[in-house]
Specification:
By secondary structure, the chain is of the alpha+beta class. It contains twelve helices and twelve strands. Helix content is 52%, strand content 22%.
Length: 403
């Protein structure tokens, strides 16, 4: 069937539409007044029965080609109701049109009515496409049809958007799977290289200072590579929801001191200043929380000049959480960066060409913090430095109360 007009059959107003559109189509086809009235009457009688018995009916008006002739066609489609008791008008409609075909399959009932179009009309493909274009562009017949058309467009857009979202989710999932598989494959040989370079480092004999220097460099770079691959693996774990936390109780003061000692060793050219206002207890996954610290402290060092100060402050925030703040005197960032730094793979335009990185550290840190029930945010001024804050909720019961 060549479909020209579609009308969903929902209420009495649609009867009027179905009737008027049928007349209009007959008129554009050049049919006699008697033929178009007959067709339109049959259409509205069946439409009435469909509206009365179902809430999912529709009418498609168009043309069907049979034996080199065209027939003006109305096709009704609706989910087969349990009790279909047609009104008198339905039987009347059957008598009005020369062809009335009812079929049922997979819970859907189709009724097609047809009236042959005289050869004198000289209908051909090009006339039909002009007709279809005409009805596609035709203005609504009344305010009701205008609202219906708008709803239809909105529904179509909503369906398209849903489909777009579904597809982009699949692509995103595939990307995460790829990252996970690739990182695993890369991690194995790097671990082997790391093991060999450490073996050479401890081999006293046969190594000149130059070779030792080179091996140190290989070892250092391999450590960096391993940490990048580990970040990639973490990202895919977060995305797949495969991350579990093993929590323990620790004093925030000792955690901060431990982390600062490690970082001072890795970045000897910055001065770390620590201030812990109240040494409260927190319940955390220590290894994961160490990742948060090393990312924030590492960034503070990476994005500021040597010999500047990085301060770390831990203070009991509101009654129920502790706030940790890491402040640097570095390059700072713009408002746009502030709004996006915790997004996956985000890097500021200012650092892309000057500082190495993949834009995963803060994304991972923010996941870890929020998974612990805390918050993370940043305050920054371009050129003057940044302060990253995050909170960790304090356990509801102190450790002694648990014993
Ligand atoms: P990476 O450092 O590998 O790029 P991150 O996720 O740790 O990834 O950081 C994302 C971006 O946030 C960085 O590329 C940088 O633009 C900005 N950024 C993070 N920390 C700082 C900081 N302390 N000072 C200035 N910019 C920062």
């Amino acid at each position: 069937m060549i479909e020209i007009i579609f009308i969903s059959l929902e209420n009495e107003m649609d009867l009027v539409l179905a009737h008027r559109r049928s007349l209009h189509l007959g008129e554009r086809l050049g049919l006699t007044l008697a033929t178009r009235t007959t067709f339109a009457t049959a259409v509205s009688e069946i439409a009435r029965t469909v509206i009365e018995h179902t809430d999912n009916g529709s009418l498609t008006l168009g043309l069907r080609q049979t034996d080199q002739r065209y027939a003006l066609t109305g096709r009704f489609s609706f989910g087969s109701p349990e009790h279909f008791v047609p009104a008198d008008g339905y039987y009347y409609a059957q008598k009005l049109v020369p062809e009335f075909i009812k079929t049922e399959a997979d819970g859907v009932t189709l009724i097609e009515i047809r009236i042959g179009i005289p050869r004198s009309v000289n209908l051909d493909r090009s006339k039909i496409s002009v007709l279809a274009a005409y009805f596609k562009e035709a203005p609504p017949m009344n305010a009701y049809e205008e609202i219906k058309q708008r709803n239809l467009t909105l529904n179509r857009i909503a369906v398209e958007k849903d489909e777009e979202l579904r597809r982009s989710k699949i692509i995103d999932q595939k990307k995460t799977e790829f990252i996970s598989v690739a990182s695993h494959e890369i991690k194995t040989p790097i671990t082997v290289i790391k093991a060999y370079s450490q073996m050479i480092k401890v081999m006293k004999e046969g190594c000149t200072d130059r070779v030792k220097g080179i091996v140190d460099k290989i070892d250092g770079q391999t450590t960096k590579l391993l940490s990048l691959v580990q970040q990639l693996l973490d990202v895919s774990k977060f995305e797949n929801g495969h991350l579990s936390y093993t929590k323990e109780r620790v004093q925030i003061g000792s955690l901060v001191s431990e982390m600062v000692a490690v970082m001072q060793h890795i970045t000897p050219y910055h001065e770390f200043e620590v201030s812990v206002n109240e040494d409260v207890e927190v319940e955390i996954d220590k290894l994961r929380m160490e990742q948060v610290f090393s990312n924030l402290l590492g960034n503070a060092a990476k994005y500021s000049r040597k010999n500047t100060i990085i301060s770390i402050e831990a203070a009991a925030d509101e009654a129920d959480s502790v706030r940790i703040s890491v402040t640097d005197q570095g390059i700072g960032m713009s408002r746009v960066d502030i709004a996006s730094v915790f997004e996956k793979f985000y890097r500021s335009d200012d650092v892309i060409n000057s500082h190495a990185g993949l834009g995963m550290g803060l994304y991972i840190a923010s996941k870890i913090v929020t998974d612990h029930g805390g918050r993370i945010w940043v305050e920054s001024t371009p050129g003057s430095g940044s302060t990253f804050h995050f909170t960790i909720p304090r356990p509801e019961q102190p450790a002694d109360a648990l014993n």
